[in-house]
Write a structure and sequence with these properties.
Number of strands of chain A: 6
Number of domains of chain B: 2
Number of helices of chain B: 4
Strand order of the largest sheet of chain B: 8-9-10-7-1-11
Oligomer: heterodimer
Mean pLDDT of chain B: 93
CATH architecture of chain A: 2-Layer Sandwich
Largest sheet of chain A: 4 strands, antiparallel
Bound molecules: zinc ion
Shape of chain A: globular
Strand order of the largest sheet of chain A: 3-4-5-6
CATH topology of chain A: Folate-binding fold
CATH class of the largest domain in chain B: Alpha Beta
Largest sheet of chain B: 6 strands, mixed
Radius of gyration of chain B: 18 Å
Mean pLDDT of chain A: 94
CATH superfamily of the largest domain in chain B: Probable tRNA modification gtpase trme, domain 1
Order of helices and strands of chain B: EEHEEEHEEHEEEHE
Strand content of chain A: 25-35%
Number of helices of chain A: 1
Helix content of chain A: under 10%
Radius of gyration of chain A: 15 Å
Strand content of chain B: 25-35%
Low-confidence stretches of chain B: none
CATH topology of the largest domain in chain B: Gyrase A, domain 2
Low-confidence stretches of chain A: none
CATH architecture of the largest domain in chain B: 2-Layer Sandwich
Structural class of chain B: alpha+beta
Helix content of chain B: 10-25%
CATH superfamily of chain A: Folate-binding superfamily
Chain lengths: 93, 207
């Protein structure tokens, strides 16, 4: 189980959180102008890296707030916790 | 509003009546329900000092701004739920008057993005107290409840035996208020009685 540092409550067990998948995926501004393939790419395609991944998490059973983390998908180490809306880092670690 | 004569405890199906207040000399855990507590969910910007002062003058105590903290006392208090969200408690029956006063104060203070909701009947409060109360909770709660980490006046939204709760330590005995959804209350009561059985459980009188 992960221990996740909620920015509002402090470190809590993973069971209190929900994972919202990969972060920084912007909804297309004009969905009607996309081809089916482009829309499918937005909906379904994720980077799925072996290494550092930016993810959205919600402290569902605590303060119910969303935030972003950077997690290493190999070691599960959480490298950074940051606010929704904050940009991703250019290079990880 | 529900006709008060139709109100019943979410624990009514457990038929606890005959056990309330029975002497239990061996018990080191006391379990009860606080039935009559008014609860108002308050959302506002904690950085708006004018607004925070306006709420303080209505409540008689400041809203807690630190994570996982409470203010006020056992009858009237505020529990911080999140960075811009609190649960305000008052003796049952006074929630409508307080709701109105908080709304008036927010308007007069020019508060933006304020939300008030009467959530009195969303959750009930189970009280768990006594020398082994902490041991009972630790059987189903992942929080560190040791006094170095969790003390009187602290609160936390968390899970207890997989039920979503708001835990509030109200005394050093230790004593806890466990806010739990109405429909989970009977389940959680039965779980608490089972978890506390080895320490002896006394069913306290309800308010
Ligand atoms: Zn939190």
């Amino acid at each position: 189980m992960l221990r996740i540092e909620c920015p509002h409550c402090g470190a809590r067990d993973e069971a209190e959180f929900s994972c919202g998948g990969e972060a920084h995926i912007a909804r297309p501004k004009e969905p009607d102008k996309l081809s089916d393939a482009e829309w499918a790419d937005y909906l379904y395609m994720r980077t799925n890296p072996k290494g550092i991944l930016a993810e959205r998490w919600c402290h569902t059973f605590g303060c119910r707030r969303w935030f972003n983390i950077e997690r290493d998908t190999v070691s599960h180490e959480i490298l950074r916790v940051y606010a929704m809306g904050e940009p991703r880092r250019e290079s990880g670690t | 509003m529900v006709d008060p004569s139709l109100r019943q405890s979410p624990l009514a199906t457990l038929h606890l009546g005959g056990r309330e207040g029975q002497p239990a000399p061996e018990a080191s855990v006391h379990l009860a329900e606080r039935r009559s507590v008014g609860k108002i969910n308050l959302r506002a910007d904690p950085g708006d000092g004018v607004l925070m002062n306006a709420f303080e003058s209505v409540l008689g105590y400041p809203l807690p701004l630190d994570p996982n903290r409470t203010s006020g006392d056992g009858k009237r208090g505020a529990l911080r739920l999140g960075p811009d969200e609190w649960l305000v408690t008052v003796p049952g029956g006074q929630e409508n008057a307080l709701f109105g006063a908080l709304g008036t104060a927010a308007t007069a203070a020019g508060g933006k993005h304020v939300a008030l909701s009467d959530v009195s009947d969303a959750r009930t409060i189970l009280t768990l107290a006594g020398p082994r109360a902490r041991d009972v909770l630790q059987k189903g709660c992942g929080l560190d409840l040791h006094p170095r980490a969790f003390q009187t006046g602290h609160c936390a939204g968390t899970l207890l035996a997989r039920a979503a709760i708001l835990l509030h330590q109200t005394g050093d005995a230790p004593a806890y208020d466990i806010h739990v959804a109405w429909s989970f209350a009977a389940y959680l009561w039965v779980w608490l009685e089972d978890a506390g059985a080895e320490y002896g459980v006394a069913v306290g009188e309800v308010e």
